[in-house]
Predict the 3D structure of the following.
Amino acid sequence: MDRHGGIGAGEGDTVDGEWEYRPVQLSAEVSRMTAAVRLAIQAEFGGWELSRVRLYPGGVRKVWLRRKRSGRMLPELSV
């Protein structure tokens, strides 16, 4: 996510074997419900699943999404 709460398209993506990972940072101003909806949209339309969540002091959450690598391209979302 950028500092305004939007999910960055591909920034910081990493590949590890058959998985690709995308870090997403959620600011403290983003409610749990809003975060859940945004992550659900990524899962539904981008093929991502939740890999890990860390909560930092101040309310910042860092989320790692993952999906299996495939030969076909999946569309990115503009959130």
Summary: Confidence is low (pLDDT under 50) at residues 1-9. The longest strand covers residues 19-26. The first helix runs from residue 32 to 46.
